[in-house]
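[INFO] parsing input record for VOC family protein
[DEBUG] input buffer:
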Amino acid sequence: MIPQIKRIHHVAYRCRDAKETVAWYERVMGMRYTTAFAEDKVPSTGEDDPYMHVFLDCGGGNVLAFFELPNQPEMGKDPNTPAWVQHLAFEVEDEAALQAAKAHLEAEGIEVLGPTYHGIFRSIYFFDPNGHRLELACNIGTAEQYAELADLAPVMLEEWSQTKRAPRHAEWLHKDPAIA
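[DEBUG] output buffer:
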């Protein structure tokens, strides 16, 4: 039977320091630290590998988790994947909230890129203390735009699959009306 997914239970990433990571996500992102698991052996594999696993409430039933693994080699990144690709995106209410978040992040000394226009949302980008890229986004699209994109999605994927070139069916996504 195909699983009937309700929602994402949690998303887990590695961190360098669990205490620093929790403090940063509470102070900078306004998340609430809820739970910690710590074991000397990995329950699923039985491996002897002590860890601290911390969980943060992101709101709306969403949970972000981190593992600190003191006995493993230092964290690394895939050298063949650009830094902009792998990221976590969080939604904020509107453009005013996005601008306020940008001001808050910059006041914390964090370098912020954006806002960037994506047709149906605007977003800002920055990095957490572990080097994970984060995005804050606010939706700005209309019902008609979302419907058009849903209709175009299979056509665009098929074209991409055949050509490996960006399909131009939704070119309007990349033309910010504020920069006319």
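[INFO] DSSP finds three helices and eight strands in the chain.
[INFO] shutting down worker
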